[in-house]
Please model this.
Amino acid sequence: MDLTQMFLIAGVLLAVIAGVYIFFYMKDKKSVNKKEKTEGKETNASLQLRLHAYERLVLLADRIALPNLISRVNQPGMSAREMQLLLIQSIRQEFEHNVTQQIYVTADAWNAIRNLKEQNMLIINQVASYLPETATGMDLNKSLMEVLMENPKASLHNIVSDALSFEAKKLID
Model:
């Protein structure tokens, strides 16, 4: 399988994931928050907790966005395999650090974050698998950035951030 086929497969996979997410995003956008209707307005303290959770998840999405992650963890002199492991480990650590936020946000919001994490790890692993054994960490980072530049829709980062912002704004209104 050559690199073009890999990109095509990754693109189709990402398009399906994005399509499913957009479907649920639009469904949620059109529906009214039933909990607020039946239980009245949230208390100020619970509202603040939920808003803070959305803020943290927007920050998480930004921190695990591949361009931001690459620029933050880049270390010269690493092999591609070492860089791959460092990128994956960083994503997992960021995700685990924020895992408790799921109790304050909707299931759709949490699933979006989880899908972003999985998608980014998949892209890193796929790109790394096509590099030669002698590739450097810089080669991996460059290849990852090329994939993202060739396929701007390959990243769910903006969609996830927009969805999280939309849900947080619904809490305020």
User: Anything to note?
Assistant: Residues 12 and 154 are 9 Å apart (CA to CA). The chain has one domain: 45-172. Residues 45-172 form one domain.
